Fold this protein.
Amino acid sequence: MADFSQLAHRVVQATIDATEPGEQEADGPPTPAQVNGRNGGRKGGPARAAKLTPEQRSAIAKKAAEARWRKETTSP
């Protein structure tokens, strides 16, 4: 059994290691649900764009541009 100081040191080290910024540990290979979700996300955008008319795409692009400009001009 470790004494109190050694136990406290281990707890602090484990906390530091778990919250280290910039380092994300992989929990293993992706689950089938994660793979299906990613594949669906890859297909969704192009499939949606193919169904839109040029006028609809233009309206969406204008709305996005307005949101970007509005975001930049209203800085705190």
Notes: The chain has a mean pLDDT of 82. The two ends are 55 Å apart (CA to CA). Residues 35-76 form one domain. The chain has three helices and no strands.
